[in-house]
Structure formats: structure tokens, C-alpha cells
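Record format v2
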Amino acid sequence: MVIFRWYRSIPSWSLPVVLALLLVLAPYLGVGSGTQRLLLLTCILSLVTSGLSLSFGYAGELALGQTAMYATGAYLTGYLAMHWVNDALLLVALSAVAALVVGLVSGVPGLRLGGWSLAMTSFFLVLLVPQFLDLLEKYTGGAIGMVGIPAPKMFGHKLTAVGFYLLVAIITVVWFALMRNLITSRHGIAFQVLRQSPVLASSLGISVYRLKLTAYAVGAIPAGIAGALFAYVDKYLSPHSFGFTLAVTVLAAAILGGAKSIYGPLVGAAVMQYGPLRSSDFEQYSQVIYGIFLIVAGTLVANGVAGLVTKGLRRLENRFAGAPPGGEVDLAAPSHRHTALSLPPMEGARLEVTGIRKNFGGLQALGGVSLVAEPGRITALIGPNGSGKTTLLNMICGYYKTDEGTITVGGEDITGRPTHRVARAGVSRTFQTPLFPEDISVGEAVAAGSYMSPYVGMPSSILRLPAYRRAAASDQDRVSRVLGLLGLTDLAGVEAASLPLGTRRLLEVARALVSSPRVLLLDEVASGLDEDEIERLAEIIRAIRDAGTTVILVEHNFKLVLSLADTIRVLAQGELIASGSPAEIENHPRVLTEYLGVRQEAQS
Amino acid sequence: MTPIWSGLSIGAVYALVAIGYTVVYIAYTTFNFAHAQLMMFAIFISYWGFVVSDLPVVVVFLIAAVGVGLIALLEEFIAIRPVKGAHAHLVTTLGMATLLDGATRLIWGDQVLKVPPVGSDATWTILGGRIGAVEVVLILSVIAIAAALTLYSRRSLTGLALLAMAEDRDAALLRGINVKFLALGAFVFTGVLAGLTGPLVGPKTFAVATLGAALALKGFVAVAIGGFGSLPGAVIGGFVVGLVESLSGRWLGSAYPTIMVFVVLIAILMLKPAGLFGTTKERVV
């Protein structure tokens, strides 16, 4: 227990730092040249694997193309070192760029169809490697291979064996440090959201296509670097080294180490390099063994070695450090109840929907609906099931294409824009079924809401530039303020998806709120909540309105709507049948018959 | 004309693989990476049956159908059933594909083996191009299979149930369709089909352990061209791939066919990602 406490008290990056130092200093610690070579190959394989992890583990796209990028880096380096200039650092950089280009060129079409098309396109790319090498035989040596690559030089000086080892080890350490920075930034959370729910990701302003492409293309960089380094290892390249077997080895290493982990690829690559790849008997059985491994690993150990370690640590934590305060927040508890809610002012925007029409096949979902929602007011949208309320929200958000009509936010036409661009125009929403990716804490889930405001690019996140630091600090600030306002502060570290429904609904509101939306769409946000929770929610919604945001409330709870809304619009069968103040709607004859099902006679 | 005939007949092979993908896609909305390997296995079984054991034709077809059907059954149980989601299936079925590749290599080695044609080995001259009798049979049977399957899926109750399942698994379940059993049936059927067509395909492709990977890719391109879930699309896509391959080999040189097929894949993904007969569904929240 003491050991565990001590372990928790040291910063999480210290273990990787110690291991990195050991790796770099290995030649000076009496590690023999045979082991050095193994470490070298492990580093190279882990770089390739790390590229796959980024795309497969984080962005959720199985892509096997790293082998092709690896080959690109290797042959480019080999050729240039022989015929142009032999400077290891320069060639590593060039190879990285070349691999990035290959990644972009193959990723753009591969990601168009979504699903498994990237997997197949990249798989195809790998099988094309020998054909391209053959086609460019003049430069690559074709099937015979490329011979005569000189020993690496840096700034005109020949590198010794130890010098080259140091170069590889340092590049590997730097790459993994950068990966860590990327994954622990908000892009890391964005990846997780993307992988589990593209629908949610786009509603947060994340362009699904762009981010997936970025992950795949960025994942090409280490593969290219690894290729460049590999060219110097044996000073000989043969097409045999870049076949499909390598692609499967890399995939196996990624899964073994844990595809969704930063340092997992190192573990996986080490196991591969020290185990199967060392014995020559393995060659014959390699495919059978890899095949069985992929089936077993694909079904059983979903998160690899890294996943097991994380799980183990979590278990220890629960045991020794006391379980985190999980479960339900008592929303009716005194501490939550009488806090006066007030939000900092937010700039709302007028939402105007004009003559919107939508048919699904032959079925008319919306038949020319027009409505306006003003900033600083709550506009409720009610109507029987199937009347088109959610369809309308989905069209505003850009999930559906409009057949006819226009939608504007603050005078800006957003009709037909993809969801992530609607979100960037300041439209936030909650979902009927709260959407929370697994393994994400409450704090992270809410922080995901502010991915785009302000947007911090990957380079500054990776290099931890001031822009990143500022945004990270303000994220932290806003998240804790919003959580505080909603009385969820205690839960910041708990896994969001494990919370009860009522809390998750509040959390959805928090996530929508953190980006200071101009328009907030609440889709049946009160359903499934008890009286106290509804009361709390109503208070929050009023506070959001008072802060100036345009609130649209789709809701079935008529009492809640009457008490909250400033204006009410009633939809039935895709048409607007009534609109007015709560008092008018309450007594509107068509609303009474068509929505509330009250018979006219009974009313009089 | 000869390159066109040979393109159509190799295209028929790709179409068969594409049909296998499509049926599994309809039943599971997932992708069976290993289908091409199932077909490769059937080709090796027919090599073994015809050349090594000299068995009667009917027996070879029977062994291939039952054998590959059983492998498909096994695959469903170890690689499809235990995991959920298309991406997880990609990993497990890729594992199955690799396993079958490796097993083939262990059993039959790396060399290219010639599979003798079933029945006549005559060649005919049609429209000025030469084509083997086997190839004619192959092309016609692929068209017949696709037509029969399309008709079956539209007319028979089981076929309709399958389509309903592809549309919405849960809704189909609630309608009283035994989703699991039906899907398993469809999966094993693709194995049996691969087994039955293997002896027809063998003379055209030869038996070689790298065949699976090559067929998998061309089959995928065929599906991408035709559109996911469309049987006529799979057949047309297969023929297109075969023609591209054969004509580019004829006019550009032997290094180009695979590269040109890749170019076609990229082009179709960029211009019409849903394929010729595919439909894009609007997303639902």
C-alpha cells in the first residue's frame, strides 16, 4: 500500500523518462553489440507500429499501409545516400516528408467510403510495393535488391556503430515523447470520440474525415523515419523485407502492445523482435501463428498489454486509494439546491428556418416548416411522436440534407453545410440518448466540447507551444466552471459513460455549454429524469437563456415546456400547426386535440 | 478479342469473390477478409483431388464444397461470432486469412500448381478471339449464380428476411427472424459456394499460396466498383476489374495490371465512393 501510494505520488512521465534514458545509454551500460542490434530493430519496428496505433487504435481506422511508407523511406534514403548526399538527419527528414505524401495520397481516396475501404486500399498499397520496386528497377535494384548503401554520416562525419545506435534511440525517444504530447492533448480525446461515435464528433465541430486522414497521414511519418533508419542498418534493401508479412507483424505488434496506448508499440515491437522474428524456424510457421494470434487477440485482449497494465493499476487504485466518488450525484441535496445559478454572458444568435421540406423516400417528414428562435429566449418545439421535431433538429445540425428551404444562424446561411461546420458556426446540441465514449472521464468528456473554441492545431499541441498552454489552461478553467455550475465537480475523474442517466443528461448540457454556443439545441433533455432532476435542469436552462444564448427545446414534458418556454411552436405531421406564448398554446384547440388528445367537448 | 475474353473470364473469378463478400455483407454488414482464401483453399482441394488422388469429378466437387463449407463454419464461430463491429471483424478475419495462407503454404508449399480443367479442354474462336471451354462455363456460371441469388433474395421468404436483416438487425429480430441462424446459414453458404466454384476457377488461376491475397484485393475492387451490397454490381465490378487487368497487361506491359487496378480503385473512390449500384444512407442520430 505504501509502495502504491508512493507510486501514485510520482508524476506519470517519470517511468518513461527512466526507460528512455536506459535505452539511450545502453551502449555505455555494457550492453553487447548483439543486444544493441536487437534494440535498434525494436526501435525501428516500434516506430512503424506507432504509426499504425495512431490510425487504428486512436482514430479507429485499420490501415496497413505503414509498410509501404516504410519502404518509401528506406528506398529513398538508400538511393539518395548513394547518389546525392549522405546525411542521416537530412534523409530521415526527407523520408518523413515522402511518407507523409504517400499517406495523404492513399488516405484521401481510402477514407472516402469509410469503414473498411481504407483497410483495403492500404492493404493494396502494400501488395503494390514489389511491383513498384520492379517498375523502378533502375533505381531500386528490383528483385535483387539495393546494394551499396554507404554507412551513415552526419554533418560530414561518419557515424560509428554506437553513434548510429544513439541516433536511432534518440529519434525513437523524441517520437514517442511527441506522440505522448499529441495523445494527452485535446486531440487525443477527439480521437477517442471519433472512434466511438463519429456522430458525436461531428456535432462537436470535429471534421471526421479530416481528423481520420490526419491520423493516418501523421502515422505515416514514423514509418518513413523508420524506413530511413532501416536502410542504414544492413546497408542492403530487398523487396522481401517489405512484404505482407511485415504488415501483419506490425499489426500483431500493435495489438499485442495495445493499439490504444502511447508506449504499447514499444512493448509489442520488443516482444516481436525478441521472440518470433529472431528464430529462423519461425518463418515457415509465421503466417499460421500470426493468423491464430490475430484471431485470438482480436477477440480476447482488446487493449493489449498496455490495457492489462492500465486495468491492473485501476484495480490497485480502487483497492488502496479508496474508490473514486462514483455513481449518482444527489441533485436534490442542499449543497446543490440553492446555489444561485448564473452564467457569464454568452452571445446568442438568431436562428431562422424558412420553408424547410424533407422527404424520406415517399414519406413526408417536414412539409415546409418556418420558425425563428431569438437569442436570450427559450423556443420550445413540441408535437406528437413522428411529427418531425428531431428531424428538424437533425437538419439544423446538418445530419440530413434539406430538400428545400434555408437555415440561417445569425444571418449566416448554414443550409447544407456538413455537421462539423454547423457546429463551428456556434450550434451545440444534446442527444436523445446521451452519447459518451467509453473510458473517458467526466472532465475529458466536457472538455471535448471545446475542441474548436479556440482550435489549437496539432503542431502546437505536439510541441506544447504557448497557444497550446493557453488553451489548455482556459479549457481547464471553463470545464471546472461549468462542472461547478452544474454541481458535478466531484465527478470530474469518474468515467462518464458509467454514470446514471440523469447525470449523463446534465453532462450533455455541460458539454454543449462549454463551447459557449450561440444556439443550443436540447433534444428531449428531460426524459427519464425524476422531479428533482427536472427542477435542477429547468434552472440550468433558464440560466443559459439569461446568459443570452438562443435555446431550442424539444420536449414531451408539457408542464416543463409551459413553465420554461418563452414561445412554443407545435408540429404535427411535419407541419407547424400553432405557435405562441405558453398561455396561448395551452388553450389552442388544435394543440389540445392533436397533441394532448383532449376532446373539444370535454374542454368546454 | 482474346484479351477481352481472358479479361472476362478472370473477371468472373473476381466476381465470384465479390459475390462472397456481398452475401456476407448483406448478412452481417461486415467484411470477410478471408473469403478469397476460402476460394483459394477450394482450388487447392481440387488440385489435390484431380492431380494427387485422381478422384472422380463429382467427388472432388463434393469434398471441396463440404470442406470449405466447414472451414467457413469454423470461421464464423471463432472469428465472426465472438466479436462485434466491422473493424474488429477486419482484424479477426484478416487473422483467418493469414492462417489459411500459412496453412496452405505448409501443406502444399510455395510453387505454382496446375489444376486440370473439368471436362473438355477445348478452345474455341469466338469473334476472332480464343477462349477455352472452361472459361465460357466459368463466365456463364457466375452470371447464373448472381442472377439466381438476386432472384432468390427478392422472391423467397428467406431472401427477404436476409435483406431485412441487412437493413436493421434488431428490427428483424423483433419480427421473429432467427437472425443468428440465418446469418450463419448465409456465411456457410458462401463457403460452400467457394468450394463448388473452386474446381472451375482453378484451371484459370492455378493453385498458388499467394492467390488469396491477390483475389481478395481484386474482389474488393470489384465490390467497390459495383457498390456494397449489390449482387449485380459485384458481377459487373468483377468483369471491369478483369478487363482492366487484361487490357493493361496487353497494352502497357506486365508490370502494370495490378497498378492499373489500383488506379481504377482510387478513381472510383474519388468519383463515386458508393459505387455504381450502391446507395448512401443518410445518417441518423
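The mean pLDDT of chain B is 87.
The interface with chain A takes residues 31, 78-79, 82-83, 86-88, 90-92, 94-103, 105-106, 213-214, 216-217, 220-221, 224, 255, 258-259, 262, 265-266, 269-270, 273-274, 282-285 of chain B (CB under 8 Å).
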